[in-house]
Amino acid sequence: MTTKVTRYRWVILILAIIVLGYACLRLFDMNQRMSVLEVQRLSRGPVWFVTSVEFDTLRLNNTLLKYADDQADSSDVQTAFDILWSRLDQMRRGVTLETLNEYGVDLTVYNRLASLLETTEDRVAALGPNDAEQARALVGAFEQELGDLRAAGLDVLQASLTESNDIRVDLVAIARTILVMGLILSGATFLLFVVFALDSVQSRRSLREQKALLQEAHAADIAKSQFIAVISHELRTPLTSITASLELLKRGIRTQSPATAGRLVEIAEHNCTALRRLVNDLLDAEKFESGKMEFDFQVVDLSRMLERTIESNKAYAASYGVEIVSDGIEPDVRIKADAPRIDQLMSNLLSNAVKFSERDGKVEVNLRTDTGRAIVSVRDHGRGIPQKDRSRIFERFQQVDSSNERERGGTGLGLAIVKAIAKAHDAGLTVESELGKGSTFIVSFPLAE
Prior knowledge:
By secondary structure, the chain is α+β, with helices and mostly antiparallel strands. It has helices at residues 2-42, 45-68, 74-91, 94-103, 108-125, 132-251, 258-290, 302-319, 339-355, 402-408, 414-424; strands at residues 298-301, 323-329, 334-337, 362-370, 373-379, 428-434, 438-446. The protein has 11 helices and 7 strands.
């Protein structure tokens, strides 16, 4: 899971980098277009210049007419003439001239006007108090250019309107680009947020996993300590009994009666059997854990096997003051199984039930068939299993109450072996329990075809 999250995080991060790179390119392009528009905005002066030239020409003519009617003096004429000349000179230089050339406007009329101003400059400067006719002649010369000036101005205005429309289109495109860039940057921000969120989730998951591993290690350490304590008890008790029996036999080999000697041998034999069973449980648990346990499946009579197992475990139960009783065993129930392993499974269930039964209690065994399965139940009337412990009782070295295990015997391997054998036989395994009333272990095997 962690590897998958890491892979997705890198994919999202690379995608976010690509999106941001694209956004940067688009913003650079938009900056270039804005620079062009800024130049175009600054170059819109030609409309003002051409209209100003036309206006200043009209004003010069009007001033000349007033001079002819003796309503203005020569200085007024000279001022109007200088303003027109200055305006025309500015229009024919720099950015304004370049823009007019880009518009494709015919500049002939402005060139003629410049030539006219050059040829009339001395005449305007020489105007005296009685030069009304000279002033009217100048008015006629400038009036000839007014029509062409107006036509040229309209051409410049039309070109400017076309340019303004292009600018408007570019501005709309830029506005859309800004909108798209906003969406792209929002998407990139979201992707980066997802990356950081995944990092956060992964960090929290790693912390939880580390905590779980620490808890498991702690639980395993506790289980190990309990297991060592139980094994020490399980080994020490029979070894002590065997040693004591052999010591008594050694000391009284000549004086003790055969009955007494036979009893001591029986005790030693019983404890040797217990030791062998303990070692076998340890070896079997390891084989099941490593998957090296071998099975020999044959069709067997489960009914007869169960009866034999009950009989063989009655003496063990009696040592605890418990009786194993048959609560109904359906005859001739056949399953496909490894007989020794089934006997081991049943013996472990019975010994477990016996150990958790009160003295003078009973363990009830039942076998029935239902919907193609053979169902075996083993019920005790002990203290029951708490709900929180039912999920772990089938794990190795797990015990509901380790103090009781040391009192009554057991390694915590029996139910783990039961679970492994049941799984190998495709059998279901459940437990029903009620505190203070006992527990029922149920195993269901597929019937043999």
